[in-house]
Amino acid sequence: MIVILRNSEDSCVSLYHHSQIAENYTGTFEEFCRLFLAGRVSFGPFWKQVLSYWEQRKRENLLFIKYKEMKDDLPAMIKKVATFLGKTFTEEEIQKLSEHLNFESMKKNPAVNHEEIFKILRKSGYTTSNHSFLRSGKVGAFKSKLSPDMIKEFQTWSEENLVGTGLSVE
């Protein structure tokens, strides 16, 4: 099992946009943040889920990766995953995989971006959102979406949930 941890703020923003298209969420972003913090959204409560995997991080069959590490050095993460899976790749294969697996390539890939499904949802009237399944993929993009007060609330919430766990999230 491979677990990828993204910071709570970016996860919230991403889930908000996903919920608009996939679940027809129509509330405000501020309301969604409150629901996220309360653990009342899909895939929540966030820290309970994350920490349930973190507690098992030493198991042989579990690899724990931070999203930021993957974004900072995709080739290194490909090598790490390959090692975890007992595979080896040449540098040329790593380069090709890096090109294929980078966010912009994945965003354009119909096998990954689910655009056909979302076209059907829009056409049926289930959702009016024009967001795509893979939207920005940037680390720290929450800074342009969350208010300074909400950022502070997320930081405090994360600190409270991470006390004594040994887990840090950038």
Automatic annotation (TrEMBL):
Recorded GO MF terms: sulfotransferase activity
InterPro entries: P-loop_NTPase, Sulfotransferase_dom
Highest taxon of source: Eukaryota
Keyword annotations of the record: Transferase
Pfam families documented for this protein: Sulfotransfer_1
Domain Sulfotransferase positions: 1-165
Family from the record: Belongs to the sulfotransferase 1 family.
Name of the protein described by the UniProt record: Sulfotransferase domain-containing protein
Species, as recorded: Ignelater luminosus (Cucubano)
